[in-house]
Amino acid sequence: MAASHKSGKKRAAPSQNGPKAKKAHLESTKPDKKRSQPITRPIASQDSESGSESGSDAEFDDAEPIEEDDSLEEADDSMQIDTQVDQRPKDPNAARESHKAQKILQDQRRAAKPHSTLLVDAKKVWALARQKNIPTAERAKHIKDLMSVIRGRVTDIVFKHDASRIVQTVVKHGGQKERDEVASELKGKYKDLAQNKYSKFLVTKLIKLCPSHRASILYEFQPYILRMLLHRESSSVLADSFELYANAYERTILLREFYGKEAGLFSLTSGSEEDKERAKKGLNGVLEGADNERRRRILGSVKDNLVTIFNNSDKGAVTHAIVHRALWEYLTAISTVPEEAEQEKMRKEIFETCQDLLAEMVHTKDGSRVVRQFLAQGGAKDRKQIMKTLKPHIERMCLDDEAQLVLFTALDVTDDTKLLAKSLVSSITVVAQKLYSSPQGRRSLLYLLLPRSRRHFTPAQIASLAETDDIRSRTSKKSSTSREDEVRRAASEDLIRWVEQSGESLIREPAGCLIVTDIMLYGEGDKSEATTTLLRALSSPTVEDPHPIDLPPTSRVYKALLQGGHYNHTTGTIERVPTASWDSSVFANQFLKVVGREPTVSMCLGSGNGAFVVAELCEALVRAEAVDGRRTLKVWFTEELMKEIEGSEAKGKKVLLEKLALL
Q1: Among 1, 136, 186, 453, which residue's CB has the most CB atoms within a 10 Å radius?
Q2: What's the half-sphere exposure (Cβ side, CA atoms, 13 Å) at 541?
């Protein structure tokens, strides 16, 4: 029966449809840049909090239009009317009359509120303009109509929660002309807007999308920065502005109040280009040419303002990059104080003020530099206190680009490697399974074995870590080579055991291959069980397809282990590790015993990279002059088999036959 309702029209074949119609151009869905998140914040909280601006977008794009703030009052009236109706005998028309009464009351309240007509008109157009899946041209028309409704009246409605969302839509989807027009109308109101629960999102959007007005908006904030940082609503506006949108000069505007009133008398954030360049130097620019007494007063003001932030850590401002920049500038300026004893005293005082809050700072560039500076300049007691503060967050720090540099510096400067092994190294190796899949996590594991290796760390990261080398040379008694060897030794046992337990699954993933290779090459300790685990993956029959040797990253693991090191593309040579760390000849002999004849021969006839691996096996045996192993391979690879390999389409067969001829 169902078939009788089908249409008789058939769908055209793909070849008859002609070229596909172009899709209508829709708005870009590229995600907005987000602020770095503190490592102390729960992961669930970070996922749900997408930033002040994007959170606002979701609110006004997806929510139904909100009428007014009198919804609760209407609900109360509705309950009273319903109660009265229940007390009377039931009447079929009672509910209808009740709804009419509520509607009349609602309309009267709405009409009595200021700008009611304007809001009603604006919401009608806004309902069209805020739709997601409409062409750009149609949206532009609606935005133009919406702007004509609110033009000249933006300041009257922007503080209302629903009307603020209307203005945000204009700013988000409008052209630069409409954005600049809104920004101009709101001049002089930005501080109040930033402190409002609803309009703060609009301020963030204007700072982002109106670069020509950004400096003037930030100037309105300048005298109130500290109070705004401690304010529940405006704190996020300043944090986004500083970290995401402001340029170097505009950041100095936000930092100026940290320097105190005396520094504010000498305006360096306006005027000539020369003044602007000087302003970009931050606190050092303010202190240029100042005598010692004035220098002390300005540094004292900076310290007092920072202490105010630290003493109100519950407000959340201590996690913001602007505070970390001010603290970094203060630590840098301390080094210009003539008396060394006074320098140490000032550093000690600021450290004692914020030592319990350091975990709130490590996620930003400047915050990371601050904590690394404290680690390098502090004594053994200070370093122990810092590590105690950071220890509950080590796993999260390993996965953060900036925070992990703090851990690396701790490994670089701490002389007590036994304490380091217990408090830091073991905390990293125990979560290796959770870390290896991300680039940040792999770096955290590899730094234990290969600190500052150009193979795994960028020049920028190495340069950043090298900032504390000069201080380390004065505060550390142990040589860096000795410390690195002790850290590597402490980490190796857990990492090698991890390969023993999970090696077969790790080598089937590109990320796992990267970490397994270097653990085997550079780790110190008994690797016989780990070696057996890796070779068993090649010998045991598996239902998984493809075979491990046919995976390019996996085949490179075995090639590197048989070569005894990594291939250097610059020099075109193999950089072999010392045999005390890894002996490729032992691995080659173990390969023959564990893998066996059939799997080894099958590798050479497959379509993967097995022939290259067996070629390296031959070379390893020749290099080590392993007579028994070479004899075994000769027996396995008969003349008949070599002819079969020559006639096959296996990759690397030419290289393999050349290596077999050398046996």
Answers
A1: 186
A2: 1
Which own/partner contact pairs does 179-185 have at CB distance under 8 Å and 24+ positions apart? 179/206, 179/209, 179/210, 180/210, 180/212, 180/213, 181/147, 181/151, 182/154, 182/206, 183/210, 183/213, 183/217, 184/213, 185/152, 185/154, 185/155
What's the burial of 642, exposed, middle or buried (CB within 10 Å: 0-12/13-18/19+)?
A: middle
Phi, psi (rounded to 5 degrees) for 513: -60, -40
**Distance, CA of 206 to CA of 103 (rounded, Å):** 38
Helix (H, G, I), strand (E, B) or coil at 284: helix
**What are the tokens at 550?**
């046919």
Of 231, 219, 157, 161, nearest in space to 190 by CA:
219
The residues facing 573 across adjacent strands are 568
Number of residues assigned to the chain:
663
Q: How many Cα atoms sit within 13 Å of 295 on the Cβ side?
A: 18
- Comparing C-alpha atoms, which of 319, 436, 419, 302 is closest to residue 368? 319
pLDDT, residue 5, reads 45
pLDDT of residue 94: 76
Whole-angstrom distance, CA of residue 501 vs CA of residue 506: 10
> At residue 14, does pLDDT exceed 70?
no
CA dist., res. 177 & res. 47, Å (int):
34
Q: What is the reported pLDDT for 545?
A: 72
Q: Could you tell me the two tokens for 289?
A: 């040419």
The per-residue pLDDT for 457 is: 96
Q: Which two tokens stand for residue 153?
A: 């009246």
pLDDT surpasses 60 at 89: no
Provide, for the chain, the percentages of residues in helix, strand and coil under a 3-state DSSP scheme, each rounded to the nearest 5: 70, 0, 30
Please give the residue that has the higher pLDDT: either 527 or 132: 527
Q: Does 591 or 290 have the greater pLDDT score? A: 591
Tracing tokens 């300005």 back to the chain, one arrives at: 298
pLDDT over 60 (residue 206): yes
> Looking at beta carbons, which pairs linking 513-517 to residues 24 or more positions away fall under 8 Å?
513/553, 513/554, 513/556, 513/557, 514/442, 514/553, 515/432, 515/436, 515/442, 515/445, 515/446, 516/557, 517/556, 517/557, 517/560, 517/561, 517/566
* pLDDT for 6: 46
Q: Which stretch of DSSP H or E encloses residue 576? A: strand 573-576
Cα gap 537→539, rounded to integer Å: 6
Phi-psi region at 596: left, alpha or beta (left = phi > 0; alpha = psi -120 to 50): left
- Selected residue with higher pLDDT from 309 and 114: 309
Q: CA nearest 398: which of 409, 407, 411? A: 407
Residue 475 in contact with residue 482, Cβ under 8 Å?
Answer: no
Q: Which residue type is seen at 388?
A: K
Measuring CA to CA, how many Å separate 20 from each of 14, 16, 23, 28, 198?
Answer: 10, 11, 9, 21, 44
Please give the Cα distance from 200 to 194 (Å, whole number): 4
DSSP state of 245: I
Split at pLDDT 50, 70, 90, the class of 261 is: confident
* Integer Cα distance of 350 and 355 in angstroms: 8
Distance CA 224, CA 221 (A): 6
Would you state the structure tokens that stand for residue 648, as one six-digit string? 């096959």
Instruction: Pinpoint the alpha helices (H) of 89-186.
Output: 94-112, 116-129, 136-150, 154-157, 161-173, 176-185
Q: Is the CB of residue 584 less than 8 Å from the CB of residue 620?
A: yes
**Lowest-confidence region among 30-39, 310-319, 332-341:** 30-39
